[in-house]
Amino acid sequence: MSVKLTDQEKESIVAAYTGGQPVALLCAKHDIPRSTLYSWIKRYQTLKSSTQSDVCYNDYHNLKRRADKLEEQLKVLKVAGCGMSAPLREKLAALEKLYGQFSVHVLCEALDVSRGTFYNHIFRRKEVTYYDKRREEMRAHVKDVFEESCQLYGAKKICAVLAEREIITSPKYVAGLMQEMGLSSVRKDSKREYSG
Known about the structure:
Blueprint: H1 7-18, H2 23-30, H3 34-44, E1 46-48, E2 54-56, H4 57-80, H5 88-98, H6 104-111, H7 115-123, H8 130-148, H9 155-164, H10 171-181, H11 190-193
Antiparallel strand pairs: 1-2
């Protein structure tokens, strides 16, 4: 049975990889699968910024995710025709027109409207069913777990994490949502990216 390693120990193994030690040797030495080492490299490998300071890949990934989210919110603000200070009714009307073009999470954060309020507004329309609302909520849950995993988890693993959070669904349903949103695990490309 393998011993659970601390973050510092994982970082040390990644540093050894960065220093030139072969993947096969590190995996044999520490009794870990290659896929595990590749995921640690994604999470802990230090990158050089334009100012030549060290940046942990995990920090870089989190900053990039935040930047991408802010960019989406900016797109919403550009086409919404109103700002965060507009009356609620005006904001809801603007968001309703954009529903389906952006995730509900992005829409609501862009104009500072609670998701519950927005869903209540949308749900009043007869053509929006409980299924539509549930599907949108599941898309948000799936995307959250996918991003939290640094884009490593596939449908089965995301399904397992959601189950731990008492959100029950199937890997097939999650896979369909991931395909809709263009989410694909980087783990599939790990061997190609980090062959050694």
